[in-house]
Amino acid sequence: MGVNKDSSLSRWFLAFSRAELQGTEPFFLATIYVGGIPAGILLYNLFGLLRGIEREQVFTTDNVDYLRRISWSCFTGAGIGVFSAFYYFPWIFVAVAAAFMGLIVRVVKNVLAKAVELQKEVDYTV
80-89: long-range contacts at Cβ-Cβ below 8 A with a sequence spacing of 24 or more? Predict the structure, then answer.
């Protein structure tokens, strides 16, 4: 059983995209290039976070800082998506997903920061 490549939803979206993007290609490229900056920062910090976890250094202030930068990168991407939705509406879906991911990462960051604080208290009492 194969996937029907000529489904009506796909044809509608392609027609919609072609019509909506007509004349706004420079804005679309600007969105991609500007969005690459927070994406690069996010990937760099994610690599640093994973490198620290690989060294079995989980509850550190460095990891809290990495998670903070990752969440701000997500929120920046969401802002770019909201701004870009003014010329091409489907960017709003990217914005919502990025904002949701930023919120989740921010919650994890707050939990990790509290764990680091508790670990420091335990280290001082011993």
Answer: 80/31, 80/34, 80/35, 80/38, 81/35, 84/27, 84/28, 84/31, 87/24, 87/27, 87/28, 88/17, 88/20, 88/21, 88/24, 88/27, 88/28, 89/20
Work out the burial of residue 49: count CB atoms within 10 Å of its CB; fewer than 13 is exposed, 13-18 middle, 19 or more buried.
Answer: buried
Supply the pLDDT for residue 82: 98
Q: Which two tokens stand for residue 122?
A: 């335990």
Q: CA-CA distances (angstroms) from residue 50 to 5, 8, 60, 74?
A: 38, 42, 12, 17
What is the spatial distance between Cα 40 and Cα 48, in angstroms, rounded to a whole number?
12
pTM for this one? 0.84
pLDDT, tens digit, 9 for 90 and up, residues 74-110: 999 999 999 999 999 999 999 999 999 999 999 999 9
